[in-house]
Amino acid sequence: MSSIILDHSDLATADNGQALAQRRETRHQYRSLLSDATTRQKEYLAGDGTLLLEDLARANQLFDGVKSTAEGILDSRFLILSADISAQRAHQLRIDSAAFDPLEFIDQVRMVLYPSGAGARAGDSEEQPGDWAKVGTLAMRFGRMPPRFSCLYGPLMTEKKVRKRIEVSRKKNTQREGPVHEAQIDTMGESDIKKQENQTTKLVQKVHRLLTKVGPINLFQFVINPHSFSQSVENIFYVSFLIRDGKAYIDDQTGQPMIEACEPPQHADYEMGLTRKQLIFSLDQNTWTEIINVYGIAESTIPMRPSNVGADGLTQMSSQALRH
């Protein structure tokens, strides 16, 4: 009869080998659980939560075999993943408490109060008492204590307010002596506005043709009319259209504003560095008189127009714009 004698070192080696095998198996099952959980995230979110609970039960069983840090790290990874999925499911929950519609609730109560429909509409002339006993019977199923009147929002009976029209009688002032003269305002129709625009366009064209003949010329000698301040303002107004459209330009390199007709610039000219500049100056009667004396202007380069040519409103508008 033979006997096998094992010392303590052999027993310890066997136990260590068995423990290592169990730890490897535990890590393998954790990795398999993490892989399944990663691929089934959409199923977790779309389902009713049963699948997630089953995987959590698997993780709890594996946690009993956790003996080292390596297995604990795998368990924590699954715990973080399951927590993220649970948070996403919580965001998808619909909170029905915020969907309460008080108007719909009132309509339902009215249907119970007035089953036949009489008196159910607000503002009916004939008011009939509602079936409050039926409403109370329905409310008894949801609470043993009746609600107090302080919980009601607004009065039970409401009356529609009727707006009263207050008529104020205007009494004529009989204390005035003599006839009362009322100021009349002249109104301009659409045809008058179009006529004025056409007339302005024709005058601008005449000024351009004249500038083409006499230019280059001093700006003040061209626009100032020594016999009419208002027509001087109108001349500046017409010249401003030529400057805006690029049909004339002002050169002040000599120290004097010289104006001359030109061809409108093209797109290529602006690409070469040409820039537009605007000049705004004020003109009142004192300045107008001083310009006439300094430049010795005796006659107007732009011919004198009759008083009916050029609207008075245009003159006033041009003068006011230049002063500002």
Characterization of the model:
The protein is mostly helical. The protein has twelve helices and three strands. The N terminus and C terminus are likely disordered.
Proportion of residues in helical segments: 40-55%
String of helices and strands: HHHHHHHEHHEEHHH
Can you tell me the overall shape? Answer: elongated
Q: Report, as a whole number of angstroms, the end-to-end distance.
A: 131 Å
Topology at a glance:
Blueprint: H1 8-39, H2 41-46, H3 50-63, H4 69-92, H5 102-113, H6 132-139, H7 190-214, E1 217-218, H8 219-223, H9 229-244, E2 248-251, E3 258-261, H10 267-271, H11 285-295, H12 312-323
Antiparallel strand pairs: 1-3, 2-3
Helix pairs in contact: 1-3, 1-4, 3-4, 7-9, 9-12
Keywords:
single chain; 324 residues; mainly alpha; 3-stranded antiparallel sheet; 52% helix; elongated
Put the structure in a nutshell:
The protein is mainly α and 324 residues long.
